[in-house]
Each structure stands twice: as C-alpha cells, then as structure tokens.
Amino acid sequence: MRLLFSTENIPINTRFKRWLETLEEQRLPLEQERLGSGPFEAKLESATLGPLTMTRVSEGPLRSEATPRAIRRLGDEGGISVAFILAGSTTVGQRDRTSLQRQGDLVVIEHQPTVITTSPGNQSLYLKMPRERLERVLGPARRYAALTVGAELATAILAMSFFEELSRMHHRLDPVTGARMGSIGVDLIVASIAERIALDAPLPASGDVLVQRAKAHVEAHLGDPTLDPPRLAAAVGVSLRRLQALFDERGQHVSDWIWQRRLEVAADRLADPTCTHLTIDTLAGGCGFASRAHFSRRFKSRFGLAPSDFRRAIGLGLQ
Q1: How many CB atoms lie within 10 A of CB 270?
Q2: Which of 113, 235, 247, 276 has a C-alpha 20 to 30 A away from that of 87?
Q3: Residue 126, phi then psi, degrees to nearest 5
Q4: Is the pLDDT reported for residue 74 higher than 80?
Q5: The pLDDT of residue 201
C-alpha cells in the first residue's frame, strides 16, 4: 500500500498537527482529539482497487468525529465504508446505535455524523465502497450501520483474511485483476453482514429482513442449478406463499429475481477480461444454468445478443 503519512522521523511536538493536516489533505472529514498523554504515533496507507479505496490506519487513542459540517463540505453524504479491526479495539456511535469492535471484527460505517473512539495501538483497515453494492442485497445501510460483525462468524474470518492478504499483495496485480479481487472481497463482506443480520432475526422475522436474507442466499448459491423459489423459501424458513407475498410487496417475483441475478452475474463475467479463459459452457454452469442452450436463450432475451456475440462486441473474443 502507498504510504501517505508516518510519525516516524517527525518531531514529537508537531506530530499530531501534521497528522491533522494530512487528514485534511486526504479529504477525511474527521475532527479528532487525543485521549492519551504519551507521544503520538500514527501511520496512514492507501490503495485503490477499481471502485474501492482501501486505507490502513494505525493510530493511538483518539476520539474522531465526522460532523455534519465536515461531511457536507466534502460532499460525501452518500458514501459508505467497512472497517476491519486488525489490532486493538474501536467504538462506533452512529444514528441510534453504539457498538464495540475488537480485533477480528468488522463494522459498516455510513458517511453520516459519527463518533469513533480508538484504543491504544489500534490498527484498522477501511474500505470505502459504492453503497449500492451492499444495499442491493442487504437493504438500506441504516439498518446495519454500526452493527458489530463478530470474528466468531466464519464469513467474517474469511473476509478479514482475504482483505489482509489483498492489502499485502495488491501491488502485484494489474488494475483489472485488482478490481476483480476487490469485487470478490465485497461479496464476502455481504455474506458476513447477511449472516450477522440473521442472528438478530429469529423466526418469525420481519418482512424486510426475510427478503434481505433470501437475496443474500441467492447471491451465495447462484451456481446451484437446483435453486428455485421453493428451495429458497425453505432455506430462509418460510412458506413459498409467504416469501412470494413479500417479494410482491416490493414489486418483484422470486423466480424473476433469481434469474435476474444469474444473468447479471453472467454478463459481468462475460465482460471481465480476467474471465476470458472461461468457455461459455463453463460460465453458464457457474451461474446456475443447466445447459448452454437455456443460458443463450435467456441471455439473448435479456440483453439482445447471444453470449458469444456479447463477449465479441466488447472486444474479448469468442468462446
């Protein structure tokens, strides 16, 4: 990752001032105050992976506040970040929720008025990402912002390990592959948050949570050709009639949603230079289509081109 700031070799009495100046230069809308009396130490590193910005922050005990004025000034009201706690602990207060994160946990932070308190020796990895990537599957971020996704969840462990390794290896990846790896990592984050939401929603769950859970299950099992509305209803623990009624309330149909996501993911992979080694048959199977003919028929109906023509039209050749 690219080093943006380090207190190493900076005189002790000017370190915190220089740190605040760096935050301003990097357009981080934080007002900070120190909580400890010892020498201030901090480091800031950053990398870009397609639409994701990855920032590793090492700092001493601080109280950081993102105020409405600072957020408006930077025009960042619609942003969203996910923080992985690599060392120490963090307390996040946002909207009507305050939560504690320890090493191995992750937390979603909306770019809204927020107070974050860090412990001595804190190190966190922040991922700034498109809000739509989370909300398309999980619903409005306000429902899970500042919710601790604990390290006891297998999906959280996988997401943490993936991004820790990516932060070390990203410089060896070309831009296209780096962006693709970042996208895969976001899918792991979505799965982690979906699993955490499910823990707070014992049956009977609210309609919104059930739909979010169903969509998260679809994302995780797109490659299963047996996934259909009855199996999806069983997976989330409700009747098919109940699940369909919930989707109807949102102007959707369960079956249409499953096929929509399969086709969208297939189109993304056809347009991805890192997937050119995949034949159309392999790609179709990986998105849950039982045959190439079925895939081609549905794909052409949706996008107006056969899969091979679609791939050729964007300059990636025929398979």
Answers
A1: 24
A2: 113
A3: -105, 135
A4: no
A5: 56
